[in-house]
Each structure stands twice: as structure tokens, then as C-alpha cells.
Write a structure and sequence with these properties.
202 residues, mainly beta, five-stranded antiparallel beta sheet, 4% helix
Length: 202
């Protein structure tokens, strides 16, 4: 929808204005299946992954979670330019995302190391039904140090991902670096099964 001038339906500030940033497309999630969006996640050009709490029935009370701080920061603050995918997990939600951008002429020649990540948000919720009935439990932001660092190697049959086990009692997900300089994730991942995903790289 095109809105000329300051005619936004609702503005929820994330980060600091005027710092040459930009928010990617959000992932909207209906936690209790009532057809109403409860939370949203979106990355930005500064490597932040933001969580938006939309559970209140009154839209002016919608807010950025964690007191306005990011839920997660990518390794080396690499940019996120597509919506994360998500899957329900016993302990909350798994957010899967990739890093990289192709917005300027300089980006075309960049060979920065980019990443694929899966991050656990341990927020659980209760619901009594109806608008504004979802109540989120508290959770904490996640850091890269809480993820298992997997490795991706190239072989005759393609790339092979290391089989490092992720113990979700002590860790909050996993990540790996793309092994080819200049490779980047510009589209959202797609879950194939509970443990398999597909990511198109550029």
C-alpha cells in the first residue's frame, strides 16, 4: 500500500532514527490459531533481529519486545534483508534466517562472509480465546555465543553440514557460515520438514 506523506497506520519504532538502517519484511505469527497476529519478527541492515509484541487488543499498545532492544544480533552484524521462517518448538519458537544484501552496486562485488542461522525464542504463551487473549511469558534476548557453530564443507556431491548436536537445555540454536565468498541469502528460508529446510542463495 502506498501512503503519501506521514499517513502510516501505526508506527512502532525499532532502533534509532537516522542511522541509515532499514527493516526487512516481517514474519507475522498467529500463536493460538485464532486468525489474529500475536508477534512479528524482522531483521534489519545493521544485523538486528527484532521481535514485536502485538498481543494487546489495543494497537497503540503494540511494542518492540525486550524494552526496545533487539532479540538477536547476527555474527559480525551481517544484514538481514528477508523475513525469517519459523517453526514451533517444545520450548517456544525457532526462527531461521539468512544474512546478506544486494541493494547497491558495491554489494554486487562484496565477498563478506554470510550466515544461515536458527535461533530459539523460549517465549511460551497462554490464551483464553479472543482478541488480546494471548499472554506471552518472559524470555531473554539470545546472543551468538549461545548457538552451536556448525561447519559447512564442499565435496564431490555438494556441501555437507557438520552433525554437531544441539542440546536445547544449554544452547539456543545453531548457525554456519556460507563457504563461498559472495554467497548470500536474499530470500526467506522454507521449512521442508521439522528438521529440514531449503534456502536459495545468490
Amino acid at each position: 500500500q502506498f501512503l503519501e506523506g506521514s499517513q502510516e497506520l501505526l508506527a512502532i519504532p525499532a532502533g534509532t532514527a537516522g542511522n541509515a538502517n532499514g527493516l526487512a519484511a516481517p514474519q507475522l505469527i498467529d500463536l493460538n490459531g485464532d486468525g489474529i497476529v500475536d508477534v512479528a519478527y524482522a531483521g534489519d541492515l545493521k544485523g538486528n533481529l527484532w521481535k514485536f509484541d502485538l498481543t494487546n487488543a489495543s494497537s497503540p499498545s503494540w511494542k518492540v519486545a525486550y524494552g526496545g532492544t533487539p532479540f538477536f544480533k547476527t555474527p559480525n552484524l551481517r544484514p538481514v534483508t528477508s523475513a525469517p521462517a519459523f517453526s514451533f518448538h517444545n520450548d517456544g519458537l525457532i526462527l531461521m534466517l539468512g544474512t546478506g544484501k544486494s541493494l547497491t552496486e558495491a554489494d554486487a562485488a562484496a565477498i563478506d562472509e554470510e550466515y544461515i542461522l536458527a535461533v530459539l525464542d523460549e517465549t511460551k504463551f497462554t490464551s483464553s480465546g479472543g482478541a488480546g487473549s494471548v499472554v506471552l511469558d518472559s524470555s531473554d534476548p539470545v546472543s551468538v555465543g549461545e548457538l552451536v557453530h556448525k561447519s559447512l564443507s564442499s565435496g564431490a556431491d555438494g556441501w555437507s553440514l557438520s552433525n554437531d548436536v544441539v542440546d536445547y537445555t544449554t544452547k539456543k540454536g545453531w548457525y554456519f557460515a556460507l563457504p563461498v565468498g559472495g554467497a548470500r541469502a536474499l530470500s526467506s528460508p522454507v521449512w521442508v520438514t521439522g528438521t529440514q529446510f531449503r534456502q536459495v542463495l545468490t
